[in-house]
Predict the structure.
Amino acid sequence: MQNRPSRISLGAWAVSTLMLTLLVALCVRYLDEPLAYYIKNHLFTDLHWSHLSANLPDLLLQVVLLTTCAAQVLYRARLRMGLRDAITHLSRLVAWAAPASYLVKSLLKYVFGRVNTRYWLEQPELYGFHWFQQREGCEGFPSGHMVVIVTLLAALWRFYPRLRPWCLLLGVLLGMALVATDYHFLSDVLAGAYLGVVIEALFFWLLVRGPQRPDNPAY
């Protein structure tokens, strides 16, 4: 087991981050506005869809709290039973990565201060980023739901390869739903998904693949 990421791994992360940054920049510049207008002018002409999407509850914090508590209880229980298998590693990873992903998305929303899609549709002059301003309606980037949910899906993807098609499907459907309901711009969703992958990978290295410790057997 290595005590640090290989240069190849760091290089791959650097390249993927650069590519994602360029993709997000292109979306911000060319795709986000026309796509949001298209959705408003086509999907939202359906009154049922408009009413349904306008009344979706935001349960992300509750999901994070319940997931974190359940993962922590499961991890402690399996340690007491002397079990150090995939479920044990997964529960430990989730117990740390889930709340971390929520904190990261909250911090980044404040830093970027990007107007959310629905607020922008009412006030188009606010389009863009309002850095560190904490203005009303400016908490769109990155998508918090994508950050948190993709973090959890990435953990499942890593430990249970048979679930990977379902993880991918759920992630794509969530992203499409967030865009199709005009809760987020496309770039918000892409950035959130990538951050979720990064957070999961970081905590996996710290908790499972990092320096050897008494409670960290090789995986």
